[in-house]
Fold each of these.
Amino acid sequence: VRRVALVGTGLIGGSIGLALTRAGIEVRAVDADAGRLTRARELGAVAETTGSVAAAVEGAEVAIVATPVGRVAELVVAALDAGAPVVTDVGSVKAPILRAVHAARPDAAARFVGGHPMAGSEQDGLDGADADLFAGATWVLTPTPATDAGAHTTVRSLVGQLGAEIMEVTPEHHDQLVAVVSHVPQLAATTLMDVAAVTGDEQAMLMRLAAGGFRDMTRIAAGDPGIWPDICIANQDAIVTALDDYLRSLAVVRGLVAAGDGDALLQVLERARSARRNLPRRVTVAGPLVELRVPVPDRPGVLAEVTNLAGRLGVNIADLEIAHSMEGEAGVIVMVVAEAGVDGFEQALVAAGYHVARSALE
Amino acid sequence: VRRVALVGTGLIGGSIGLALTRAGIEVRAVDADAGRLTRARELGAVAETTGSVAAAVEGAEVAIVATPVGRVAELVVAALDAGAPVVTDVGSVKAPILRAVHAARPDAAARFVGGHPMAGSEQDGLDGADADLFAGATWVLTPTPATDAGAHTTVRSLVGQLGAEIMEVTPEHHDQLVAVVSHVPQLAATTLMDVAAVTGDEQAMLMRLAAGGFRDMTRIAAGDPGIWPDICIANQDAIVTALDDYLRSLAVVRGLVAAGDGDALLQVLERARSARRNLPRRVTVAGPLVELRVPVPDRPGVLAEVTNLAGRLGVNIADLEIAHSMEGEAGVIVMVVAEAGVDGFEQALVAAGYHVARSALE
C-alpha cells in the first residue's frame, strides 16, 4: 500500500495518519470539519487535504473511515462508490454497519472489511493523536464469508503495519463482546451516578461519603456523553441482551441480600473476585511475576516516589493500578513486577517507610 | 480522656491505637486474635494487651469497638457490662447495631455513641495501620435523642483528637447513605464482573477487549469478599431499597436503548456526567483551581515524570486521578492544581512532549 484515503481526522484518524505517514505511506484526507483537517496536516498526520470523499479516494489503494459511528456506513458507501479498491472503518459497532453497506451496495460490499481498534476513544480529539497509539493494542476485524480475500489481506497487512494485534470475530460476536465489556459498563456507571445524584444537603452528605471505590466505579460517567446515544442505538440489540443479563443477575443478588443468604453472597463475591484478579494484564517482562500491594497516603509525590524507586533499581513495572479503598481517600498501589529483582525493590520500599504485601501471581 | 479500651486491633483499631498513643493516651487492647494483639503492641499501637473486654475496660474512660460489623453489638454490650463510662464503635452499618444494643441493655445504651470513620477498609489489615489515617477524613457519628450528652461530647472530642472531621446523622440515614455510595456500588461491580466472566475462549476474547474503563468499574470486585456478607445482612433494608432504585433506573435506561431514544439517553448521560464532575474533591490549595487533562501512554515512569515536574516547579497537585479511556490501555492523568503557577507547569508538560487540555473548574 502506497496511498491511503483517510475519512475523518479525530484522535483515531489522526493517529492512523501519523503512523502511516511515518511508514512512508501517502495519506490524503477529508473531514467535515475544515479546521480539524487543516490541523491534521499541520500535525503531519496527512500529506494532503481534500474537499470530498471522491477526491480523497482517487489513486488510493485503501480508504479508512474514522468518523463517529453514526456516519460510518454512508461514508463507506461513498468510498466504495468513488472506486476505492478496499475500504475499512474503525467504528465501535460492527453488525449494523455491515448490514447497511450490504443493503446499499450488495455488489461492492465484498471490498469492505469492518474494523475496530481497541485504543484511544472518540472523546480525546485530534490533539491526543499519537503514531504509537496502536502499538500492541488489539484491533478487531470482522470479515464475513462474503468478504473479498484480497481486501481482507490488505486490511490485515495495514493494521499489522500500525503495530496492532489482530483479533477476528464475526460482526455480531464483536457487538456482543463490546456490549458486555464497554457499553453496559458505561450505562451501569452512568445510572449509578444518576441514582446517587440527588439535590441539596442530601447530595452534599452523600458526596462526603463517596470515596475511592465510588469514584473508580463512576469515573467513566464523567466522559463526553455525546458519543453514546449513537453507539447505544447502533448496538441496540446486543446492549439490551447484555443489560437484561445484568438486570437478571442484579435481581438475584438483591434476592440474596433480602433473604440474608450470606453463603450464597460470598460465592458470588468470590467468583467475581477470582475473575477480576485473572483479567489479563499487558505484560512485557519475561519470567515469573509477582504482585506488590503498597498502601499509600493521599499526598502528591507518592506515586513518583514509588515509581522512581523502581526506576533507580532497574525494576520494570509491568502493570500498575491505584486501587482506592471503598472508604477514605487513601489507596493501594498494585504493581506487577518480574520476580527477578523484586526482593531489592521490596526492601527499598520498606526502607522508605511503606508497607508491602507481596503475592505470587497464579 | 487519659485511658482508652480498644476492642479489636485491625487496620482501623491499630490506627486509632497509634494516634491515641501519640497523643499521650494510654491504650489497653483486647483482640480475639492473640498474634495480632501482640503485633499491635510491637507496632506501638497499644500500651498493654489484655485477655478480656472486662480487663481492657477497667479504668478506661472510653471503650472503642473496632471489629468486623457482625461482632460489634455483642462487644459493645460486653464493654457496657464491664462498666465502660462511654462506648463507641467503627462499624460500617449503624442502625442494626444501635437497635441490638438498645434491645439488650435499654438502660445502659445511652452511653453508646455509634461511629463510622470513612477511612481505610477492613480489607487492609494491621500492617497498614497509620496514626494519620483519619487526618482530614470524615467520621460519621450517629447519636440519637436517647444518647447521653456527656458520652456524646466525649466521643466527639476523641474523634476530633484523631484529626477527623465529624459529620452527624441518624443511624438510619447513615445506613441509607452508605448503601448508595458503598454497598450497592460493591454489589454492582461484583455483578458486572460476574456477568462478564464466562468460560473458555469466549472469556479470553472478552478479556482482550476489557480495557481501562471496565477495569476501573470492576476494581472493587477484586477486594476481600469476606467482609461483605456480614455488611449486606446487617444493612439489608437500606441495600434492598437502594438496589431497587438502581434496578428501576437501569430498567428505564434499558427501555430507552430498546426504544432507540437517543435524546432521552443523552439527558441521562449529561446529568450523570455533571454529577460526577461535581463530586467534591479533597482540596488543600487556596485560590481558584484548574483541571489539567494529560493523555499518557502506557509505560512505566510516566506518572513519576509528570508528578516530578510538578514537584520541581513547586506546583501542588490538589487532586490526581488516572482516567482510563473506555478502550485501550492508555489513560489520561486528570490533575487539579492552583491556577497560580499553572502556566509554567503547562508549558513544562508541553515541552516534555505531553498534550495538555486545561479547563477552569466551575
Amino acid sequence: MRYAVVIAGGLGTRLWPMSRADRPKQLIPFIAGRSLLEIAVGRLEGALPPERCLVCAGQAHEEAVRNVLPQLGPDQFLGEPCGRDTLNAIGLCAAVLARRDPEATVAIFTADHVIEPVDRFQAIVDSGYDLVDQHPEALVTFGIVPTGPAIGYGYLELGEPLSGESRRLGRFHEKPDLETTQRYVEAGAEKFLWNSGMFVWRADTLLECIRRYMPQNHEGLTRIADAWDTPRRGPVLDEVYPTLTKISIDYAVMEPASRDPAATVAAIPMPLRWLDVGSWPSLAKTCSHDEQGNALAADRTLLIDTRGTLAVSSDPAHLIATIGCDDLVIVHTPDATLVCRADCADDIKELHRQVESRYGKDLV
Amino acid sequence: MRYAVVIAGGLGTRLWPMSRADRPKQLIPFIAGRSLLEIAVGRLEGALPPERCLVCAGQAHEEAVRNVLPQLGPDQFLGEPCGRDTLNAIGLCAAVLARRDPEATVAIFTADHVIEPVDRFQAIVDSGYDLVDQHPEALVTFGIVPTGPAIGYGYLELGEPLSGESRRLGRFHEKPDLETTQRYVEAGAEKFLWNSGMFVWRADTLLECIRRYMPQNHEGLTRIADAWDTPRRGPVLDEVYPTLTKISIDYAVMEPASRDPAATVAAIPMPLRWLDVGSWPSLAKTCSHDEQGNALAADRTLLIDTRGTLAVSSDPAHLIATIGCDDLVIVHTPDATLVCRADCADDIKELHRQVESRYGKDLV
C-alpha cells in the first residue's frame, strides 16, 4: 500500500520573529492565509486516501498540527520528542509503517515549499510510486531544476535512464562548495538537479539501508517502532530517541547509497515551480506585489516612496506604514518587530541567537 | 502678579504613530520617561508659585493632563473646545487671567521643547517679567540663536537695546522663504533670532493689541472670559470659541505690532540649548545614543550592523530588532508600525493624512 508522510520539523529561525519555538514556520498561515503544512498536505489531496497521509513533527506541536489538520486520525501523527534531524524522523516513519504494513511504500514530503502546478506534481509523485513498484529495491528521490548555483542544497548527478523520466543516480553530492555548484549548474539540468528533500521508497528498503550505513540508529528506531502501537510507546521513545545520532538522511543514506554498488538510487525530475520558503525573501516571492515591487503579507499597509519591501503582520488591525524604504523586510508581531535589509536576511539566524541570549526564550 | 501658562495644543502629526488625536505628543512620556508637558511645567518649578502656573489644552485632554500633573488646581486648566490656533489659546488665557487679576503679567510657554540648562532658562524668564514691570506696555518675546536657515520659524529682527539684554524689535518676520532665512542667519544672532513661541506681557496689554488688530476675536474672547468663572462657561465657550478666526499669535499680533509705532515690542535672547521636539529626528536628539549613532527610545532593542537609526516603542516588553539599517526611524505602537527614512520625516504629515483617509480616525 502507498503512504505519504509530510515532515514538519525544522525551527524556521530565518523566519523569526513570526516563527517561534512554539509556533514553527510550517504552522503559520502566511501564504494567502494558509500554513505551509496545510499546503503540503493539501497538495496530496486526491493522490492517495487521506487516511494514508501522515504528519511527522515535534510532539509539542501535536495540538497545533491537529488544529490546522482536523482530518488527521489518531494514528496519523508521528511525534518526535526532540529534533534528531531528517534521518531519524524519516526512519521513524518507515519503521512504524513497516510494522503496520510490511508492504508499505512511503513517499516523504517537506512542508517548506510551494510547488505548482499541483496536478503535474501529483502525476510525478505517482510515477515515483510506480517506479518503486517496478524496482522495490530502489531509493527514489525527486529532483528540482536548479535556478542558480545555490550552496544550501544537495545536488543529484544523473546517470543512465532507468524507466520513463527516471534516471539512475550517478552520485549524490550534499551541499557542495560554490565553485562546484557553479560547475554543476553550467552542466545543465540533464546532468545535475537539486535534491528536493522528497523521496519515495519501500519502508523495508530504507530500513535495510539504515541498518547498513547507520546500524545503531537502525537498532534504536526498531526498538521504538516495536513499542509504537503499544502502551510502551512513550517511555521507549523518550528513552531511545534522544540517543540517536543526529544526522540528515542526505549524509546518512543518500550519499553512501549513491556510492554503494549494492544499492539502487534513482532520481525523477520534477520540472515545476518550486519555492523553498525558508527565508523572508523567499516568502516574499509567494506574496502579491504592488506596482513598486513591494510584497504585502499584511492586511493594512501604506507604503509611500517605497520599493522592493516586504511587509508582514498577522494582526489584521495592525498597520505597517513606510516612507522612503528600499528593499527592506519589515515583520510585525505583538512582542517583536524586525526591520532587516533584504540582502541581510540570512543574518536573521545570528540575530535569533543573540535575541535568545540577551532576552531569553520568550522571544524566540 | 506673575502667571505662567503652558500651551499644550497642536496635533503632533509628525510624531505619528505615537502621537494620536486622543494622546497628543505633549502627553507621551518619551523623553526619558517624562512627557513634554511635564518637562515644560517642571522647568518653571521654583520660578513662580505652582498655583500660578496654568495649562491650556484641548478640553478632551483634561483628564490626561491632570493625570500627568496632579498638582494642577481646578482653576489652573483652561480647556479649548476645539483648536483655533495660538492667538485664541493665548488670548483666552490673557482674557481669563485679566478678569481674575487686572494686574496679571502672563508668560506663555510651549510644551514642544527641551530647553537646558533650566537655571539659566529661569533667570532669562525672570528678566522678562522684570522688563514688563518696567515697560507695562511691552510685548516681550524670547529669541533663540538660529542653528541654521530653518524655514519653519518666525525671525526676530533686533533693534536698539532696551534694558539689560533686551532689544527693541525692529520687525517680526513670520516664516520667511529659504533665501531670506539664509540672509538672516548669515547676518548673525546680533541681528536675527528665531521666535521661540514664548512670550511675556501684561494680560491687558495683549488684550488691547488683539482689540486693535483682531477686533472680532477680542469681542469673542471677552464674552468667553466674562462667562468663564460662572456656570455659563460651557454654553458660551461652545457657542463662541468655534467662531473665532483661526490664526497664529505671530501673524495676528506680533507682525502687526512690530510695524505699529504705537506698540512696544521687545526681544530677550535666550542663548540656550533649545530642541524643538516636533519630529522624530528632533526627538532622536533627546535620546541616549549607542556607539553607532543609533538613538534608543525603547526598552528592548537589538541592532546589528545598524547606524543612525531611531528605535521607539512605549511597550517595555516589545523588542525592536534590525539588521543592516542606516538612518531609519522605526516606531512601534500596538496598532501601527512606522518605518521611515530619517530624511523623509517631514513627509509623515502627508502619511498621516493618507492613513486617516484610508483607514479612518482610529489610527490617527
